[in-house]
Structures are given as C-alpha cells and as structure tokens.
Amino acid sequence: MLENCTFDEINNLKLFQPTTGPRVNMDTILLASWVKKRRGDTKFLEAGCAVGAVSLLLALKFTKNFHITGIDIQSELIEIANVNAQNNALENCVNFVTADLRDKSIFPNENFDVMVINPPYSSLTAGRESENLSRSTARLEITCTPDDVGKLASRVLKEHGRLFAVFTSSRLDVFINSMMKYKIVPKRLKPVYPKINCNSGIFLIECVKNGGEGLTLMPPLTIRNVNGSYTSELLDLYKF
C-alpha cells in the first residue's frame, strides 16, 4: 500500500501520498482555509477525500466539538488516509470510508452540518484521460459531476447546512446551475487569480441548503506578485 508513496510534511501534517495519483496541491490548502465552523457545527463530511489531507487539516483547525468523515471511491486511497489519521493522532475525530458519493444508502438523510469537496474540474468531453486511473478519477467527471455534488449536498446536509467547495472558474456557470437545481444556494464566492492581470483560474464558494437570496462576491485572492513570488495573503493561508 505505501511502497508507491512519498512521505511529506505539510502544514504540521505528516502525509503519505501516492507518487502517481492525487496529491496535495494549492487547492487543498485553499479549500481547508476557506471552510468555516459555526457554533453547533459538529458533523462534517468530505466527499472525494483522496488521502485525507483536507479532513486532517480541518481536524487541526477545529480542535473542539468536531468530527469529520471522509469518503472516496478508491479503496487504496482510503487505506492511506486511515494511516495518515493514525500517524497524526487524529483518528478520534477523523474517519475514512470507501464509498461512492452517488450511493444513496451510504448516509442517512440530513446527517451533516457541513460538506466539503474539491470535485473534478473537467468534463469527460473536455478533459484528456490520464493513463493513471486514480489521477483521471480526480481530474475528470468519471465518478463525480457538479450535479452529483448538488444531489449529495441536498440529501445529507441538515436544513441550512453548508457546502464549501473549490472549482474551476471556467465552469462557474455549470457549478452554480447544479447547486441551484438542488436548492444549494450560493452565499459567498471568492475568485482566485494566478497573478495580477490574469483571468481567474479557480473560485472558492460557500452554499447553504435552502438558503435565501443574496450572494456576496468576496475580495479576490491573488497567488503570485508581479515578480513571481507568492503574495502575503497566500502565505498566511499556509499558517492557519
């Protein structure tokens, strides 16, 4: 299981990651930093958790009255995720389960306060499939589409439960349409730019199940300064 993995330290986490497959990247840190916990939010779900980096970062971030369940369709990644939870002594507040997020039997309805997801960015028609199935599953809508995200959030979130996600800006319309279709209403949107004078590459979004009208467009996040160095705002996110 671990013979084809690297061992890395990221934001105080010790992580095994596959050498060829989904690995921690900047989106991981951005999503984990974007998630907020309200008083009373205790049960979290991460769908498509891979080796568990986001869930484990959130466990470090929210130390009290917090439990998160991570699911992924790839059992080999879940095995690594559970090792990562044990190595970081977080198995009491984090657990990982092999499951297909499209399976309606995996959780009771209205079971979670918060859902977190970094879904595949590319449609099957637009993206190029990798020879590595694990990598293709993370990048392409093979097992998860925006509609699947909306369906799952609508079913497992409690009334006014929240969804936090990161997604590609080129398909913002697709994502929002899918959320609204299932009454997962966008409430906060933060565009992320690779550098000044470039188009946004990704966005961070917070939605509320059966939320009311009104969307706040947040100040943008820029990744790099003109000289190519990382901006202070980005570096601060790595310290959360």
Q: How would you characterize this protein structure?
A:
This protein has 240 residues and is an alpha/beta fold. The chain is built from 7 helices and 11 strands. The strands form 2 sheets. Strands 3, 4, 5, 6, 7, 8, 9, 10 and 11 form a 9-stranded mixed beta sheet that branches. The protein has a two-stranded antiparallel sheet with strand order 1-2. Helix 5 packs parallel to helix 6. The radius of gyration is 17 Å and the shape is globular. 37% of the residues are buried. The mean pLDDT is 92.
Measured as a percent range, the helix fraction is 25-40%
In N-to-C order, the SSE pattern is EEHEHEHEEHHEHEEEEH
Overall average residue pLDDT: 92
Helix/strand structural class = alpha/beta
Radius of gyration equals 17 Å
Beta-strand portion reads 25-35%
Work out the helix count: 7
The global form is globular
Question: Could you list the spans in which at least 5 consecutive residues all have pLDDT below 50?
Answer: none
Give the biggest sheet: 9 strands, mixed
